[in-house]
Design a protein that fits this description.
alpha/beta; 8-stranded parallel sheet; 10 strands; 46% helix
Length: 290
């Protein structure tokens, strides 16, 4: 089935949005709250974040559903509302897009379960599949343009998530992103080349890197990742470095200009989607777009 999102990628690089949690924290939401549940309780707050990124020039915004799975939501007593929260997350992002009046894509965000899969933990692959399918179904019902699997460190887990999404739909493209350390590998020792090969085989339309240790280490991993992708579109959405704690708040020191330089260098390497993760507000996205 044709995809407007993939057609757009074929035309040239695009800029994605930045951090959701960072902005919610800045706007008074404590980290102890369930960010995903805000899709239901404070949709105008979530919508305002999306609007700010769209106004900054983002052409791809991610839904506020990173932790919208039964395992993470169980700690807040919301495990029965996975599909509702995911569906509403897409609707809020779509509403923001309509208000701003721009042509942008809504990516349904799916993050790790928060507990390790077997053999490293007690979550079975079958249990993970059920969790991810529920999230994917809600995102699809909301009308996402693509899915984005992000901040995974276990290749087995992101493959489980990707297979679950593919069981829900074969038509909506999937961006699959992993997090790599300063050694160029994931926490579980997976290399970019191995990750790219396995993710492509499982049906990812875009492969990439997000979160992690900041722009410079990301660029070093991207060289290997782009080479391994062999023409498959690549995405890069790093953190604004490691956070520092000052006056009781988390501060990220990478400036908008630094991210603009990162974006230019990433695109020169062949990256198709550039954006930000933790610590990257709209000012960083505007600098990258400019």
């Amino acid at each position: 089935m044709p995809s407007a999102f993939l057609d757009r990628l074929a035309q040239g690089p695009l800029v994605a949005d930045g951090a959701m949690g960072t902005l919610l924290y800045q706007r008074g939401v404590p980290f102890s709250d369930c960010f995903d549940a805000l899709n239901l309780s404070k949709p105008t707050l979530i919508e305002s974040v999306h609007r700010d990124y769209l106004a900054a020039g983002a052409e791809l915004v991610e839904t506020n559903t990173f932790g919208a799975n039964a395992v993470r939501l169980a700690s807040h007593g919301l495990e029965e509302k996975v599909r509702m929260i995911a569906r509403q997350g897409v609707k809020v992002a779509r509403a923001a897009r309509e208000i701003v009046g721009v042509n942008a894509f809504v990516a349904g965000s799916i993050g790790p379960l928060g507990k390790p899969l077997e053999p490293f933990g007690h979550v079975t692959v079958a249990e993970a599949d059920a969790c991810y399918r529920a999230t994917a179904e809600g995102l699809l019902e909301g009308g996402c343009d693509c899915f984005i699997l992000e901040t995974f460190q276990d290749l087995n887990e992101i493959l489980a998530a990707l297979r679950a999404v593919r069981r829900v739909t074969l038509d909506v493209p999937v961006i699959a992103q992993m997090t790599f350390g300063t050694d160029g590998k994931t926490l579980y020792g997976h290399t970019p080349a191995l990750a790219v090969r396995m993710l492509k085989q499982a049906g990812a339309a875009v492969v990439g890197i997000n979160c992690g240790v900041g722009p410079q280490p990301t660029l070093e991993v991207l060289e290997e990742l782009v080479a391994a992708a062999e023409g498959t579109p690549v995405s890069a959405m790093p953190n604004a470095g490691f956070p520092q704690v000052g006056e009781g708040r988390y501060l990220y020191l990478s400036s908008p200009d630094y991210f603009a330089d990162f974006a230019a260098r990433a695109v020169d390497l062949g990256v198709r989607i550039v954006g930000g993760c933790c610590g990257t507000p709209p000012a960083h996205i505007k600098a990258m777009r400019d």
